[in-house]
Amino acid sequence: MSYFSNDAWWWPFFFILIAGWLATDAWRYLGVYLGGRIRDDSEMLVLVRAIATALVAAVIGNLILFPSGELASTPAALRIGAAVAGFAAYHIARKTVIVGIIVAEAILLAGLYAL
C-alpha cells in the first residue's frame, strides 16, 4: 500500500489521515501514560520543554528570515519589527500569548496595508 496505489479522489486524504495518525498518536499515548509519573521539575521534563521551545523558536525564525509564499514579498524589517513588537507586548501583558500574537499580526497587517 502506497500513496500512489489507488486512483480514488478520497485516497490522498485517507492516506494522509492514516499516516498522520500512526506517526503521532503512539507518541501521544506514550506521553499521557508516562506524563503522570514524571515530576514537573525533573531533568527529563526540563529537557523536553527546552527542546520543544527551541523547535518553536526555530520555526518562527525560519518564517521571519526565510519566508515562503505571500510572506516572502514583505520586507524583512517589517517581519522582524512585528516579531519584536509582539514579543514586547507579550511581556508587557504579563506573558499573555494571545496579546503578543494579536499585536504582531496587527503590525504586520498594518505594514502590508501601508505598502
UniProtKB/TrEMBL annotation:
Annotated TM spans: 12-34, 46-66, 72-90, 97-114
Any single Pfam family the record assigns to this protein: AzlD
InterPro entries: Brnchd-chn_aa_trnsp_AzlD
Keywords, ordered alphabetically: Membrane, Transmembrane, Transmembrane helix
Name used for this protein in its record: AzlD domain-containing protein
